Amino acid sequence: MIVGTRRNRMNHRVIHALNALVIVGTGAVLLLPNFSVGQTPATATKAAASAPVQAAKPAAPATAAAKPAAIPRTPDGKPDLTGYWTNATYTPLERAANVTKQFFTEQEFETNTRNAAVRDEQQTTPGTTGDVHYDFTQFGLDKSQNTFAHDLRTAMITDPPDGRVPAQTPEAQKRSRDRAAAYKVPGAAYDSVQTISISSRCVIYNPPPGPPMLPQGYNGNYQIIQSPNYVMILFEQIGDIRIIPLDGRSAPPPTVRPWMGFSRGHWDGDTLVVETTNFSDRPEGRPRQLSGISDNFKLIERFKRIDDKTINYEFTVNDPETFVKPWIVNMPFTKINGPIFEPACHEGNYGMLDTMKGAREQDKKK
Predict the structure, then answer these.
(1) Other Cβ atoms within 10 Å of 279 Cβ, number
(2) Residues in the chain with pLDDT values less than 50
(3) Total structural domains in the chain?
């Protein structure tokens, strides 16, 4: 949600979105996201860490006499996923080594959240590389300043029961090392354009916001637009757009491997099931936990609208060539007010010349 240079980069971001929305054959209409250029986030203060946390409270459980709340539906009767959502959470992907239970108590959750908010609010050390980055509190990027899920689970991984990513096979570990070596460009991070990371160059965030759709450090917001034949998911982070056809088409040949793979969706009752294949073999552009996935890997995601404010999101990693056992992640997506911000993430491209000049000046001081 960094807004300081957003206005100068609006045209480039709109062109990026138009290029991504290439839809073939069915006549479906998808609306482009309505970025709000004039918005500015509220300036946060150091009191934010001591203020009441803003976790989205879960809906009250249905009693035997009460009927389940009706979920929003589209004109064709499908659960409506359209809207603005966040998967921001203080729940870790993996359970901490010193935690042995599946759920925290409300008091433990409140304490852990408040401690994490204090850590988020801590400022960087002047004169360091980290200090050149964003002041999260000033720009309203701390999770505690925004909506995040009220989730008592001690890990997002629900299977295996220990809440940990299973071990990779020896073959997968070698595959990961070989891929890293194949794409390694000699030199330091800022010796050349080629050695600068793709996330610094704003090509795609690393780790990417999907698939799978794991929480980000900040800008963990999404816009979903749904039609009978397509679902579009816009990620706030770098403005990446994911188009999911629902018309039963097959994936392209395995030699075609874009950054986010190819996703195909279908409805299983009230659950949207999305299968993604053809992941890129580059080590960047995917979560580190999936660094060794095989070329045949298929990610299965499930989106289920629970109530007016919640989508239950689950994905399954089942790749016997990579992991000794399957694993499942489950997390809520919480409804937020839109529109989401256009991220100002093109300093890496527009400022490339200045970046290289700065690195050369640093070299002279060594």
Answers:
(1) 22
(2) 1-54, 58-64
(3) 1
